[in-house]
From TrEMBL:
Reactions catalysed: a 2'-deoxyadenosine in DNA + S-adenosyl-L-methionine = an N(6)-methyl-2'-deoxyadenosine in DNA + S-adenosyl-L-homocysteine + H(+)
Enzyme class: transferase
PANTHER family linked to this entry: DNA METHYLTRANSFERASE A (PTHR33841:SF1), DNA METHYLTRANSFERASE YEEA-RELATED (PTHR33841)
Protein name as catalogued: site-specific DNA-methyltransferase (adenine-specific)
Family assignment from sequence similarity: Belongs to the N(4)/N(6)-methyltransferase family.
Biological classification of the source: Bacteria, Pseudomonadati, Bacteroidota, Flavobacteriia, Flavobacteriales
Residue ranges of coiled coil: 459-486
Length: 772
């Protein structure tokens, strides 16, 4: 094993080698894998190399020098160097990597937090007199002062604004130049390899800095981030941008291009654009490059100008044509025709788009494919990106996972599939963005016809798994492997795509194999879909809290006249492991014809109404459409007007969230009712209760439904569970089988409150389903 061959490290560890400075022509690399254990490496001896400076400035801890018979590991933070024999490393390569990983922990003395701390102190000194753009330009000057006299900076050369500096600016320059311990800052390495972390955090500080004074009269350093936790402002992590760019470049024949046009229509601080320039330089691309970037934030565009023009000047001899523009809405702009489109578009739900004009543009962009409904703004960007590609052009983007799964996007997905050869489709989960729990997916593809299925990435919804999965993806690609799978992630090419009807839902490799067997059972009619057996109805919406609900004790204290208006309440607190507890009741003034109480005079007949509803009349009248009949529920759901025996579930949950109420007069609130489409006996419903309450059903939910943040918690609404395969009790073979009767008995035990029998359903279920 020749450790001086960087491809060995790619194949064995899944790291991406990027030259620290291609202009130097030396074999000195950043070995990147997702930020957790990146390190520097060089394959030649250089006694004068400033290892600590390079490692610290590139946001890593360790620098590895490879000799013929040994390896030197230098850790700037521990101020420690150690030598290991080459033979020991070759025979224990993974253990060696794990050792590097253990020495790569994050600290407040790392480059990005060190610089941001200085920046925050500067902001306190200016007492927020400066505008956000001005504050960023102060940061630009601070960084440039590492190499240049800050009093004589050529603003035109650096593409920055000439701003007034605070009186104590020289102090902060000295602090930065001194660095940390033995590590001094290297401006070129910082701007080319660490700028993303610095400027993403700096922009956060600029946008959400709290202008309130603190107790001692200074400006507060508190960041106001709560209000943006679920909005569209999500900065692309470097490891994600790196993988997307890498896969885009691998799917385009660079030798066929003498000129490349690259667009990012929501460029932010240009994480994608800087990354693709680094990787194109790594590939020795010598053609003309046209860069286009749009963003609604002037701060983002100013940052992009600063960084991209630096890259152009130092690495490309100013051969790149850079066109960056501040726009109110990228969707209204002419995107032109491009060879590569890269983006992390705004993840704004339709309801949260405040500007009516922006809403109209989203509607107009998607009109052909989503004429109704409330699409996410990102879906409009996705469509426009595909339509702005050259033939054989490539697209790489971050998307909300809802675009892959929701029915509203079916026609859009069909169109994308007809236009784009899907190359990489991955579900990364809820732990990608630092400031939001958005469920994130990635996408790369090329504009041409093909019959080859994409590579799929499934990740378990846990922190840190996305980085590990993308490193394994690189290993798989470098080694030309077919698939990789573990309990945390799966990477593979499915036999067909989409896997689940018209959904792009990504599942694990084991689930994919399992679902292939389920499909055979469905084709043979051994199983049928849940939607063919049940109509799943949404529960009532009361419209107010703690007014229409009463406890069991309060109900029994009511007079008989009032008790007739109340019915048992079914919600998340009353259903557990198949058992329904009659401990809450809800005001439900309805019969089979609708609302029973037509006017306020009739309302006077009920003591509860006079004591508990009339005092809240104004509040109840404020509900939309209920001013005249203010004692009614906001959404009573007319399917509940008549009592009937049904299965029930909470709105969100798992196999423990189903129940059965034999009396049939319960009212579902914030949950779902499973109404048989064809007559079923009580035993049939107990049979299905046992299935719904089994561990096996959790597996089915993990495949077919939407997993919520935290894991093992799913949306139990019709749109997400309607395709789950179930045995058909209308088949006499099934109804007359002994497993059917065993499951009926288990369902009865669960309904009575005996949850210990749940595990007994496993053997009986194997009669109806493929083996787990």
């Amino acid at each position: 094993m020749d450790l001086k061959d960087k491809s060995i490290w790619e194949k064995e560890l899944g790291v991406l080698p990027i030259k620290i400075n291609p202009q130097e022509g030396e074999n000195r690399y950043l070995m990147l894998n997702g930020g957790y254990s990146d390190f520097c490496m060089q394959t030649f001896d250089d006694e004068d190399a400033k290892l600590d400076e390079i490692a610290w400035s590139s946001s890593t801890k360790n620098f590895i020098k490879i000799f013929d018979d040994k390896i030197l590991i230098r850790n700037w933070y521990e101020n420690k160097s150690e030598e290991i024999k080459k033979d020991n490393i070759v025979s224990n390569f993974n253990q060696f990597y794990n050792y590097i990983f253990s020495k790569s922990y994050k600290t407040e003395n790392d480059l990005a937090p060190f610089i941001i701390d200085i920046f925050r102190q500067l902001r306190n000194i200016t007492l927020e007199r400066s505008e956000p753009v001005e504050a960023l330009n102060i940061l630009f000057k601070l960084l440039i002062s590492i190499d240049e006299d800050y009093n004589n900076i050529d603003a035109q050369k650096w593409y920055i604004e000439d701003v007034n500096l605070p009186d104590s600016f020289d102090y902060f320059v000295e602090v930065l130049r001194n660095g940390v311990r033995n590590a001094k800052p290297n401006l070129d390495i910082i701007l080319r390899h660490s700028s993303g972390k610095i400027f993403q955090e700096a922009n956060r500080n600029v946008l959400f800095f709290n202008p309130q004074r603190d107790l001692f009269g200074g400006a507060s350093s508190t960041l106001v981030t709560q209000s943006i936790a679920y909005t569209s402002i999500h900065y692309t992590p470097q490891y994600l941008a790196r993988t997307i760019v890498e896969n885009c470049i691998n799917n385009i024949q660079l030798n066929d291009f003498t000129e490349l046009t690259i667009l990012d229509p929501s460029c932010g601080s240009s994480e994608f654009l800087i990354e693709i320039l680094k990787q194109l330089k790594n590939k020795n691309f010598t053609g003309i490059i046209n860069i286009k970037g749009f963003d609604s934030s002037i701060n983002a565009i100013e940052t992009s100008k600063f960084l991209l023009h630096y890259e152009n000047r130092t690495q490309w001899d100013n051969r790149i044509n850079i066109n960056l523009r501040v726009v109110e809405d990228s969707l209204t702009q002419d995107w032109g025709i491009n060879d590569i489109v890269l983006m992390n578009p705004p993840f704004t739900s339709f309801e949260l788009i405040k500007d009516k004009e922006v809403k109209n543009v989203v509607r107009e962009t998607l009109q052909e494919f989503i004429p109704k409904g409330k699409p996410n703004q990102a879906s409009a960007f996705f469509l426009k990106s595909v339509n702005s590609l050259n033939q054989n052009g490539v697209i790489g983007c971050v998307l909300p996972s809802s675009i892959y799964t929701l029915d509203i996007y079916v026609k859009l997905r069909q169109y994308i599939t007809s236009e784009i050869d899907l190359k990489l489709v991955g579900k990364m989960g809820n732990f990608v963005f630092d400031d939001a729990l958005t469920d994130v997916s990635i996408f790369t593809g090329i504009k041409k016809e093909t019959t080859i299925n994409p590579t799929l990435i499934w990740t378990k919804n846990e922190k840190g798994v996305a980085q590990e999965a993308l490193r394994e993806l690189r290993k798989l690609q470098k080694n030309n492997e077919v698939a990789k799978s573990s309990i945390l992630y799966s990477i593979y090419k499915p036999a067909h795509f989409p896997i689940l009807d018209q959904s792009w839902r990504i599942i694990s490799l084991k689930e994919n194999k399992f679902i292939s067997e389920l499909d055979l059972y469905l084709r043979a009619r051994k199983l049928i879909k849940l939607q063919d057996l049940f109509k799943v109805n949404q529960g009532a919406l009361l419209g107010v809290k703690n007014i229409f609900e009463i406890s069991d004790e309060q109900y029994h204290a009511l007079v008989e006249q009032d008790q007739k208006i109340f019915r048992p309440l079914i919600d998340n607190s009353t259903v557990n492991n198949g058992h329904f507890s009659e401990k809450k009741f809800v005001w439900y003034p309805y019969n089979k014809t609708g609302l029973m109480i037509e006017n306020e005079e009739d309302l006077h007949h009920y003591a509860f109404a006079q004591e508990s509803l009339v005092p809240h009349k104004n509040k109840l009248q404020n509900r939309s459409g209920l001013k005249d009949k203010w004692w009614a529920l906001t959404r009573p759901r007319n399917w509940q007007f008549e009592s009937d025996i049904k299965l029930y579930s909470s709105r969100f949950g798992n196999s423990s969230s189903f129940g059965f109420y034999p009396k049939g007069n319960g009212v579902v609130v914030e949950g779902n009712a499973f109404v048989p489409k064809k007559g079923m006996s009580d035993d049939d419903l107990y049979f299905y209760l046992a299935i719904f309450s089994s561990d096996y059903f959790d597996l089915l939910l993990s495949i077919f439904s939407k997993e919520l943040a935290g894991g093992k918690w799913y949306d139990l609404g019709n749109n997400f569970i309607k395709n789950i395969p179930l045995p058909n009790v209308h088949n006499d073979i099934i109804r007359n089988s002994s497993p059917y009767q065993r499951l009926v008995n288990i369902g009865k035990e669960l309904s009575s409150g005996n949850s210990s029998v749940r595990h007994l359903s496993k053997n009986s279920l194997s009669f109806f389903y493929p083996e787990i």
